[in-house]
């Protein structure tokens, strides 16, 4: 058999390359829809400061945001896995960053009881705290149900208010939260310079209000953006959500304090994740001498 003409070799290489790329694309799409939304990762972070008292040194926190529970997407296995993973992490404090349920979720008595049991399965001896997201405020009845679930699961809501978080000591850190409609003035009197102040906010954009009003925050946690949920190579994020237009995964801003934006747990509009892993955030407080 003679050698193939050059044009045929080029064509075969081209077709082979296209075939490989299509297979890679198909595998990526399959993982994006059927694997990634169910695969829960844990992200570990340390918060260090001399303002963190020795009594709070090595105190652990788990931050969960954007659970977006909706029984129409058959999340039972995912929720069981999520809270079993949180139980194994055994945090001292459990924090919720908003959007417990999807806005369209049918919040039956059974669904509400399940959520209470899931949250209650985590002991968190130093407390459970949360803030509202926009999905929690989808309607008056929806909001009341979310409040009732949190109350029964012993989660304290910190919407434009703060508490002293301590560990068997008179000293501690100040934990405050923004409502969706953030008002930094509600926290300004309690966020003191001599105390470590941790801020919860569902919307990353609300951190701008804290920065512009010189709120004495030392660190902030937020969610909402889902890490853009689908982050295409080169093309970037699939969707920018309201509340995350100024600050998000691909658009960071220099503020007076460091912050962390969680990718969250659930999905909105399309049940898919690409380059934006579902994540539990595990935080360890560390007292430093300087």
Please give a structural write-up:
With 290 residues, the protein is α/β, with parallel strands linked by helices. The protein contains 6 helices and 13 strands. The strands form 3 sheets. A 6-stranded mixed sheet has the order 1-13-2-3-4-5. The longest helix is centred in the first third of the chain and has 30 residues. The mean pLDDT is 87.
Strand order of the largest sheet: 1-13-2-3-4-5
Class by alpha and beta content: alpha/beta
Question: Could you describe the largest sheet, including whether it forms a barrel?
Answer: 6 strands, mixed
SSE arrangement, N to C:
HEEHEHEHEEEHEHEEEEE
Gyration radius, to the nearest Å? 22 Å
**Which outline best applies?**
globular
Estimate percent helicity: 25-40%
Distance between the termini: 78 Å
Unreliable runs, pLDDT <50, ≥5 residues? none
Q: Would you count the extended β strands for me?
A: 13
Total number of helical segments?
A: 6
Beta-strand share of residues: 15-25%
Mean pLDDT: 87
Which short descriptors sum up this protein?
single chain; 290 residues; alpha/beta; six-stranded mixed beta sheet; five-stranded mixed beta sheet; 6 helices; 13 strands
Itemize the secondary structure elements and their pairings.
Elements: H1 6-35, E1 40-49, E2 60-64, H2 76-89, E3 93-96, H3 109-120, E4 128-130, H4 140-152, E5 155-157, E6 161-166, E7 172-177, H5 185-188, E8 197-201, H6 207-212, E9 219-222, E10 231-232, E11 236-237, E12 259-261, E13 278-287
Helix pairs in contact: 3-4
